[in-house]
Amino acid sequence: MVNSEEERASLLCMKALANRGRLDMVFQQMASHPQYLESFLRTQHYILYMDGPLPLNYRHYIAIMATARHHCRYLVSLHSAQFLRVGGDPLWLQGLEAAPPRLQRLDHINKVLAHQPWLTARSHIQALLKTGDHCLSMAELVHAVVLLAHCHSLCSFVFGSGFDSDSTPSPRVPHSMTPGYCLCDAANGNTALSSAPAGPTEKTPRQRSLDSSCELSCHQEQKQKIQEEQKGDRLHSQTLLHADMEEEEEEEEEEEEMCSADPFRFITDPEFGYQEFARREEDHFQVFRVQDYSWEDHGFSLVNRLYSEIGHLLDERFRNVASLPFPHSPDLKRAIWNYIHCFYGIRYDDYDYGEVNRLLERGLKLYIKAVACYPDSSKTPLCPLSWSPVKASEKVHVNLLVMEARLQAELLYALRAITQYMIA
After folding, report:
1. How far is it, in rounded angstroms, from Cα 375 to Cα 157?
2. Where is pLDDT greater, at 62 or 21?
């Protein structure tokens, strides 16, 4: 029985270690919120490895395509290595044009969901399901959409937490760089937002060894039970075990380094990026009103029916992030969530958007928008200086809110388009 949050976090760390052979930096950060981490791990393991419509090599290649949209070399190399481990064809890693046509056809919806999800339309779904000789089944499409949205949102967490620090900056086409305008601002008469002064970039090096807290917790009981006369032999065995584990970790890192392909190989139309929904010129893109199509009333049941059990796993993630203890006002969490959804044209009729400007500092708003909409070009932005005294777990909490709100936004647009296709 787990008696404390520390023990629970340690057990989850070891779960992640067992799954990958070493402790991933993403999981180290999320371990400050063990209940959330557990639901995240379950979801990720399910969509990548459990029974599902798509074969394993397709899943990791789709993950490569999704993370390449944000030039996240860390995740591209990780999934490239996993792609090879599950039997993927190395030739596919030469670029998107080397992949099977069925995967290439996902490129457009990948691009749209990553940057402008409100463009997702019934016609896109129809093209994937009905046109040509390389169609997807409905179940395969839903699996692919969930995986794309999961990976896009994870890129925001990776860059927001500074994990992609070993990447070299990729050439970028500017897209009216960061932030300052959304439906919240428009509703309250604010038409511009000055940029926050840039602070020094703090980068986190990749760590090879086990996290010390996990290591201590995992071996503490063994050490207590070892009799005095057996210590020499036991310590010698542990030394050999750690040497083997470190060698395996080095081999995995070398493998990922070999798979560190240029993300641009896996994308088309690199100029396509986020544009301000509130300033768009197209009148036919209406605000997405949650009262008309919500996760709870519509999205959950549809995705759970078309891709068994995934709705429950995703819903658990949304509920867990909503229930995480936050020392500040609960209203602040809702303001952050609704502010992020504003970037994607999603609006709640029962919410007073004046709360966003009252509760969120300008610097915090800049940070949230950069991580949500421009994660790759923001290059590991720091939390605002006014938040620097806050505990590290609370900064992780903000990044988790950004990730989950973005995930839900992409899913809402994709599932609404699928619903429109099914009832047409």
Report:
1. 8
2. 62
pLDDT at residue 74 greater than cutoff 60:
yes
Residue whose tokens read 């995995």: 252
Q: Which of these is catalytic: 72, 182, 259, 373?
A: 72
**CA–CA gap between residue 371 and residue 367 (Å, rounded):** 6
3-state secondary structure (DSSP) of residue 22: coil
Per-residue pLDDT tens digits for 181-212: 455 654 444 444 333 333 333 444 333 333 33
CA distance 103 to 90: 15
Q: Are 381 and 371 in contact (CB under 8 A)?
A: yes
Burial of 127 (0-12, 13-18, 19+ CB in 10 A): middle
Cβ neighbors of 388 (< 8 A, separation 6 or more) are none
For residue 270, the SS3 value is: coil
Give whichever of 145-149, 237-241, 246-250 has the largest mean pLDDT.
Answer: 145-149
Cα–Cα distance, 420 to 291 (Å, whole number): 16
Reported as a pLDDT band with limits 50, 70 and 90, residue 347 is very high
Residue 327 C-beta-side C-alpha neighbours within 13 Å: 8
Q: How far is CA 254 from CA 21, 117, 280, 408, in A?
A: 14, 36, 45, 35
Residue 175 identity (one-letter amino acid): H
Q: What is the mean pLDDT of the chain?
A: 77
∠ CA 273-395-37, nearest 5°, is 85
> Residue ranges per domain, the chain?
36-165+174-196+273-423
pTM (2 decimals)? 0.77
Contact 321, 334 (CB under 8 A): no
CB 77 within 8 A of CB 260: yes
Long-range contacts, 32-36 (Cβ 8 Å, 24+): 32/392, 32/393, 32/396, 33/324, 33/393, 33/396, 33/397, 33/400, 34/5, 34/8, 34/9, 35/8, 35/320, 35/323, 35/324, 36/317, 36/320, 36/321, 36/324, 36/400
**pLDDT at residue 171 above 50?**
no
* Residue 135 annotated as catalytic: no
